[in-house]
Amino acid sequence: AYKRFSELLPKEERANACSARVPKSQILTLPELRANPFQDRICHVFSTSVNKDGSMSFEDFLDMLSVFSDSATVDIKSHYAFRIFDFDDNGILDRKDLKKLVNCLTGQDEESRLSHAEMEQLIQNILEESDIDRDGTINLSEFQHVISRCPDF
């Protein structure tokens, strides 16, 4: 992990990799993130940058690798997945978050974008399946309950 992190830094900064921050643009060159539709959100969630620029320290990088490792628990994975899908960082998945989530998964171009009616139906189906307290949003515990029924998560 340290080797991969330090390789993202310019040569002159590699000796001090433990105290350096890798810019988001470099993090996004990792093959695992390059094609990930949630790459910006992943950087946002794992970065501890006070500038909110998505840059990562070595500790941030380790946290990200730990969460995405096969040995991470479903609770940890689902907690971070929830944070990644919570686009407005308000602690719930509302209709706007779900719409962005679906758009990320289906693509933004004309051929793959859902129609307004299809999007509304899909969001309604997601809420009917997940929104246990029927408040029109999905909170973390509701999200984790749904994930607990998905053995491949």
Sequence-ordered SSE layout with sheet pairings:
Layout: H1 2-7, H2 24-27, H3 31-34, H4 39-46, H5 58-68, H6 74-85, H7 95-106, H8 116-130, H9 140-148
Helix pairs in contact: 4-6, 6-9
Protein name: CIB1 protein
GO molecular function, one term: magnesium ion binding
Keywords: Calcium, Magnesium, Metal-binding, Repeat
Describe what this molecule looks like in 3D:
By secondary structure, the chain is mostly helical. It has two domains: 68 residues, EF-hand (Recoverin, domain 1, Orthogonal Bundle); 76 residues, Recoverin, domain 1. It has nine helices and no strands. Helix 4 crosses helix 6. The protein is elongated and about 55 Å long.
Principal-axes geometry comes out as elongated
Q: What name is given to the CATH topology of the largest domain?
A: Recoverin, domain 1
Q: Which range does the strand content fall in?
A: under 5%
CATH architecture of the largest domain: Orthogonal Bundle
Order of helices and strands: HHHHHHHHH
CATH superfamily of the largest domain: EF-hand
As for the number of domains, it is: 2
The number of distinct β-strands equals: 0
Task: Characterize the biggest β-sheet.
Answer: none
Radius of gyration from CA coordinates: 17 Å
Determine the structural class based on helices, strands and strand pairing: mainly alpha
The CATH C-level name of the largest domain is: Mainly Alpha
Would you tell me the overall average pLDDT? Answer: 95
Low-pLDDT sequence parts: none
Domain EF-hand: 73-108, 118-153
Keywords: Calcium, Magnesium, Metal-binding, Repeat
Protein name: CIB1 protein
GO molecular function, one term: magnesium ion binding
